[in-house]
């Protein structure tokens, strides 16, 4: 693989093969940029110098206009940026623009303005774990689970960029044999998820075919779908999640293009029973993506890794999720976010939420500062990480999705 003339430190999440898109501010307002090594390349400046196609969409304050352009334009821009970062050194220098900033010296904002937000429930291990805890006396998987990607419409206005403080939500909860009370949640949890961001979208009434999903999915981000389990447990019957989920959802600041992830796509897991025709796909829709959850108390300078797992085993794939979400003809648009649902693996060290890692609070986690956690305490910081790594290929990463809990 050709190297970039921009220095990329060993082990960086952002080599030339990645080129994820974000929105940054270096003091001149919000601009679109791509990450390369420790730097951001300012696409407003690059577009101003006429060095890249689709300049108008790239001179906006979020990615939505660019997302609306569609797959061939995304490909064109990515190709041109790759060229500028390999052979285009003099082109950028001759343009006399101030195009690079250190990531550490800019503020990163939400890269897209979310229109709609959907959260799925697509890890079979997670669904079984929660089923066992919430409905101990029945089959942990409800009858629909293997037939359709279960999901719900979430709240897009509370999607926040990594680094945003998470206020401990209040709500109504009920302890057994006592009347309900209102107050701060005592069971604040995380959900390790990965989400995809959509492009141009469809006409109202026209479903998206699973095999066309690649035309509609621009890229992926890490998602922490913060959850108040005590509020959730009391409110969720019979209509599903509401206030226990909608107080904050954090996303990582860089959208990794599907085109960068293509070398890491793998077959999804086998599905039994075979899904209905509208959910069948050709090609590989699993993503060989490693995930990690770090947790640090106020007393800790470095987080402890409390969970490690892989996204490759998710039962329902992105293509199936998109086909299912639009089978009724609903409209999706540029910047909609579709989150996977909590990613859990088969073993306790691979669970993607505290409710699973502590088994409903029964088995507390021991942190390296000597304290224990059932759920999150004020001051705790959670950092999600994700990266793809495969022999013979450059490692590409998502950066971090971080949030600190405040009272
Ligand atoms: Mn979730």
Characterise the protein shown here.
- This protein is of the alpha+beta class.
- It has 2 domains: 21-109, Roll (SH3 type barrels), CATH 2.30.30; 117-406, Fumarylacetoacetate hydrolase, domain 2 (Alpha-Beta Complex), CATH 3.90.850.10.
- 18% of the residues lie in helices and 27% in strands.
- It contains 10 helices and 26 strands.
- The protein has helices at 43-48, 55-58, 64-69, 71-86, 89-94, 124-134, 229-235, 258-261, 318-326, 354-357, and strands at residues 21-25, 30-36, 39-42, 100-102, 107-109, 117-120, 151-153, 159-161, 166-167, 170-173, 181-184, 188-189, 192-198, 217-224, 227-228, 249-251, 256-257, 265-266, 286-287, 290-296, 304-310, 337-339, 365-366, 372-373, 381-388, 396-406.
- Strands 6, 7, 8, 13, 14, 16, 17 and 22 form an 8-stranded mixed sheet that branches. Strands 4-3-2-1-5 form a 5-stranded antiparallel sheet.
- It starts with 20 loop residues before the first strand and ends with a strand.
- 46% of the residues are buried.
- The structure holds manganese (II) ion.
- Residues 119, 191, 193, 225, 341-342 line the site of manganese (II) ion (MN).
- Residues 119, 191, 193, 225, 341-342 line the site of manganese (II) ion.
């Amino acid at each position: 693989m050709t190297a970039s003339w921009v220095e990329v430190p060993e082990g960086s999440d952002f080599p030339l093969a990645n080129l994820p898109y974000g929105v940054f501010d270096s003091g001149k307002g919000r601009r679109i940029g791509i990450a390369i090594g420790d730097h951001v390349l300012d696409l407003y400046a690059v577009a101003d110098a006429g060095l890249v196609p689709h300049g108008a969409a790239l001179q906006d304050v979020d990615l939505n206009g660019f997302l609306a352009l569609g797959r061939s334009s995304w490909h064109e821009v990515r190709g041109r940026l790759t060229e500028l970062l390999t052979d285009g050194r003099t082109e950028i220098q001759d343009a006399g623009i101030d195009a690079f900033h250190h990531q550490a010296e800019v503020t990163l904002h939400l890269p897209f303005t979310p229109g709609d937000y959907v959260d799925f429930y697509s890890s079979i291990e997670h669904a079984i774990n929660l089923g066992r805890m919430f409905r101990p006396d029945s089959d942990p998987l409800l009858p629909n689970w293997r037939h359709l990607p279960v999901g719900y419409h979430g709240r897009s206005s509370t999607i926040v960029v990594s680094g945003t403080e998470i206020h401990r939500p209040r709500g109504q909860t009920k302890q057994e044999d006592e009347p309900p009370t209102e107050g701060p949640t005592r069971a604040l949890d995380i959900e390790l998820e990965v989400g995809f961001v959509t492009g141009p979208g469809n006409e109202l009434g026209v479903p998206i075919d699973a095999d066309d999903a690649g035309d509609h999915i621009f890229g992926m981000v890490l998602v922490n779908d913060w959850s108040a389990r005590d509020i959730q447990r009391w409110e969720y019957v019979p209509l599903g999640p509401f206030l226990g989920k909608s107080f904050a959802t954090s996303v990582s600041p860089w959208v990794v293009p599907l085109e960068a992830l293509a070398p890491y796509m793998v077959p999804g897991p086998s599905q039994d029973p075979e899904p209905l025709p509208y959910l069948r796909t050709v090609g590989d829709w699993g993503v060989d993506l490693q995930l990690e959850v770090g947790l640090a108390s106020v007393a800790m300078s470095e987080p402890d890794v409390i969970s490690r797992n892989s996204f490759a085993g998710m039962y329902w794939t992105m293509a199936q999720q998109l086909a299912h979400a639009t089978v009724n003809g609903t409209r999706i648009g540029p910047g909609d976010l579709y989150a996977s649902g909590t990613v859990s693996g088969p073993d306790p060290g691979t669970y993607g939420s505290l409710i699973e890692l502590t088994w409903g609070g029964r088995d507390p986690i021991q942190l390296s500062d000597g304290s224990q956690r059932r759920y999150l305490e004020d001051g705790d910081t959670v950092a999600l990480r994700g990266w793809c790594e495969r022999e013979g290929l450059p490692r590409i990463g998502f950066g971090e999705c971080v949030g600190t809990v405040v009272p």
